[in-house]
Amino acid sequence: MIPRLLTQRRFAPFFWTQALGAFNDNVFKNVLLLLLTFVAVPRYGWDTGLLNNLAAGLFILPFLLFSAWGGLLADRLDKRRLVRRLKVLELVTMSMAAAAVWYEAYAVLLALLFMMGTQSALFGPVKYAILPQHLSPTELVKGNAWISLGTFLSILLGTLLAGVLASLGGAWARGSIAATLVVLALLGLVASLWVPSAPPSQMGATPWRPWRGGREVMRDAWRQPRVFRALLGISLFWFLGACYLTQLPAWTRDVVHGNESVVSALLGAFALGVGAGALLCARLSAGRLEVGLIPAGAVLFGLAGLDLGLSQPLAGSSTGLAALSLSPGFWRQLLDFAVIGLGGGVYIVPLYTLIQLESDDDNRARMIAANNILNALFMVLAAGFGVVVLSVLDASLNAFMLTLSAVSLTLAAIILCMVPRPALRLSIFVLIRVLYRLRFRGRQSVPARGAALVVCNHVSFMDALILGGGCPRPLRFLMDRPIYESRWLNWFFRIAGAIPVDSERCDPGGVRRALDEVSHALRQGEVVMLFPEGRLTPDGEMQRFRRGVDIILARDPVPVVPAGLAGLWGSWTSNRGGKALTKWPRRFRARVALHFGDPIPVGKAKRADMERRVSELKRKAEAEIGVTSD
């Protein structure tokens, strides 16, 4: 079944435009490297290492020079118009490259590699800046996932096709390469004709200032700490990816003891892993930005890299793919590269989505340009890192892979320390998915940004976990101080952002301090969850809402999202059949439903109306799973 986005004009034409562009770029780049290595070097006696490094530098340099200007163009021109112009530039470049391939003008091909890198650097900011104009916020994660899948599959297929075309030899090879480059460019240009209009976010001139523009873009990114951290996170992915892929041929030769076909198989596992990880991220995110997936992805490719680094060399030398397919050790390494890619896909999609959501409309493309500049710098750093570790320190390839694993796991630890709550919320979501058969309705009612108050009926001690896991954003919630200060669970409640509250009898100032903390959270743009009944239901029916919710809204008027929960009455954490937590669990994987209602606008929420809405949502949730509160 074809995904819905790939059938709609607002996404499909651009998807194919960028995928065909990435495909053509990689065909050209890899064909050039093969022709230089196997034709030009033997014929003219050129230095292989010098040529390969020169080619890499010519491809990366335009990203440093022109990304900032590309971001300015994307912010100040209609992006559809810019995309079409850049596809025309690609067609011109590839037509010249086709002629150079046919006449074996290798020096011209190197110059055209720089021209192709320029086109890619200018196209990069459009690639992610155009999506928020054509997709809703709840579709961005899925859109980014498909863009990532298309990009990495294009890289893989372009690399494989380049090898096939170059292997033809003679005039057949030159003619096939030339035709392929031009046809792919034409197909990309045709696809771009159907891209919908994407008007500029700001007007103004687009001055030609490569170095100054780059500094200004990086300065603007630095002034947005949340965006800049996302840029660094993406660049670290490209650093690690470049390290792995640069050493892939050497790893295949010295550890796997395989030939060129084995390099392609390992590269394919990595690329398919990234695509699968991107789609998995979209599936797990359910239409919202899930920051908790970022450290999870880093842990995945860190652990896979650790296992890869501990791999023992396989027996034999220059073994083909067919022979290695009989070796369990080879399948283990193939799986490691696939999981490294999988973790990368899970890791990188939320970061791109975060940049799109957190950047202002009038400079979103410039933030993508800043990302491209940082990516290029980190890829250069990856090359230097490889030289230092493998040449200067004379470390083995296994030690190099273990070093990359350590970098990945350290990155995951840093992210977890900086933003623990999103990861904790995701872990809770996985836990409750295991414990219960959950059904959620109306999760999109919780505002994607800004403060909000979620009010819900209170059935059991698991309610907060269900709501915390089911809500698309991390929640703050009130709870009794004695439970909050539990010796074994206090760390959990502190990370989760629970707000302890004492009764007036125990601490006359406790309620006021809790209300002050709620007020502070709302003023910081957080979502606070409240059980207005103030205690667990004793009979399964809703109790009257207490006046605390009125006090909170009087101090800080915010949107109120009503929610109704059903399915937990009768569990060992509810009061049915005895006091909660004093009974043995009697069932596993119970059906639980959580319904969110439409948000009540600021200043419109009244206690009686909230109580009525929550009661209606509770009845709908009970009807969905076929249970009652009796």
List keywords for this structure.
630 residues, alpha/beta, 66% helix, 23 helices, membrane, seven-stranded mixed beta sheet
Q: Could you characterize the architecture of this molecule?
A:
By secondary structure, this protein is α/β, with parallel strands linked by helices. 66% of the residues lie in helices and 6% in strands. It is built from 23 helices and seven strands. The protein has a seven-stranded mixed β-sheet, with helices on both faces. It is elongated, with a radius of gyration of 28 Å. The mean pLDDT is 87.
Give a quick rundown of the structure:
Helices cover 66% and strands 6% of the residues. With 630 residues, it is an alpha/beta fold.
The share of residues in extended strands comes to 5-15%
Overall average pLDDT: 87
SS content category:
alpha/beta
Biggest sheet: strands, sense, closure? 7 strands, mixed
Name the poorly predicted regions.
Answer: none
Give the termini separation: 43 Å
Order of strands in the sheet with most strands: 1-7-6-2-5-3-4
Helix content: 55-70%
Write down how many β-strands occur, each being a DSSP E stretch of 2 or more residues.
7
Number of helices: 23
Report the order of strands and helices: HHHHHHHHHHHHHHHHHEEHEHHEHEHEEH
CA-atom Rg in angstroms: 28 Å
C-alpha geometry: elongated
